[in-house]
Amino acid sequence: MNADDLSNPLEYIAKQQYKNRIEFYTKNTFKSFENNFKDESEFNKFLNNFNDEHEKFKFIFCGNYYHYLKFNEGLNANIQLIMILSIVEKIYSKDNFIDFKDWCAKNQSEINIRDFTSFKSMLECLKSQYHKIHGSRQKVSGFFKDYFDKEDKKCLLDSIIFKPTIEDLDGEKIDFNKFINILYIMRNNFVHDARFVPLHKEGGIGGNIRYNNKEVFVHFEMKMDEFLKMFEKAYIKYFRSAQNDQCN
Question: What pTM did the predictor assign?
Answer without folding.
Answer: 0.76
